[in-house]
Write a structure and sequence with these properties.
alpha/beta; Rossmann fold; four-stranded antiparallel sheet; 10 helices
């Protein structure tokens, strides 16, 4: 399997706090990779390095390299808006805009220069179908997105992210605010999307990681403790810390 994200000797500091320590990993294309570990262990910090969202946080220092398709995304010549077209992100809390359902999904297309109304319409419909939301909203496309349930709003955010055809989708605890039924729908959707997208998901829900991911990385206090096939991480971990965490002894 071809790796699409390559991380080498990565250190990240928030001021003097050493949040990520000597991280080395390769993330394979068109797979779901889960990051697990207790709060504050560095998993979301690492996720944000993949689309340079940490650039928006004051006093961040990053050392080492992060490459996408073997191109250093922290090179001074990197065009960050172009990077973020390739690497979409879905956050913990659904962030539907106070616009119509249609305009939410079309937003990224318009920002990126799309103007043909027919082309935008077809892209919006396609994204809603891929996000498993079309059947629920097709008769109310121009109603406010804020009227949707939390689970629907999260799928809308996924539709908005995939409408511009990213190669990678980052998901930071996308189901933590959702009920079990909505969570199951998102998980089914993520598995379906992984046939065409590389997906990296941060989750506190170890059962979720076990259900949907191909690879799992376990972090603790800024260190990458163990990274490998999900089945091995949960059933035959190599490190004692991993065993204690996945068996519920701490975290």
């Amino acid at each position: 399997m071809k790796s699409v994200i390559q991380v080498r000797n990565l250190n990240l500091y928030y001021g003097t706090q050493h949040a990520l320590k000597q991280i080395e990993m390769d993330i394979d294309a068109k797979e779901i990779t889960a990051f697990i570990g207790p709060s504050g262990c560095g998993k979301s910090s690492l996720l944000r390095t993949f689309n340079r969202m940490n650039d928006l946080i004051p006093n961040v220092t990053i050392q080492g390299t992060v490459k996408i398709d073997h191109t250093d995304i922290y090179h001074p010549k990197t065009v960050v808006p172009e990077l973020r077209k390739r690497v979409g992100m879905v956050f913990q809390k659904p962030t539907a805009f106070p616009k119509s359902i249609f305009d939410n999904v079309a937003y990224g297309l318009r920002v990126n220069g799309w103007s043909n109304k027919d082309e935008i319409y077809h892209k919006v419909v396609d994204a809603l179908k891929k996000a498993a939301l079309w059947s629920e909203v097709k008769d109310k496309l121009f109603d406010s997105a804020l009227q949707l349930s939390g689970g629907q709003q999260q799928r809308l955010c996924i539709a908005r992210s995939i409408a511009i055809d990213p190669e990678i989708l980052l998901m930071d605890e996308p189901t933590s605010a959702l009920d079990p039924i909505s969570t199951a729908k998102i998980e089914d959707l993520v598995k379906e999307l992984s046939h065409s997208l590389t997906i990296v998901i941060v989750t506190h829900n170890m059962q979720q990681a076990a259900r949907i991911s191909k690879k799992t990385a376990f972090f603790l206090m800024g260190d990458l403790i163990e990274f490998g096939d999900t089945k091995k991480i949960f059933e035959k971990p190599q490190k004692e810390e991993t065993k204690r965490y996945t068996s519920g002894q701490f975290g």
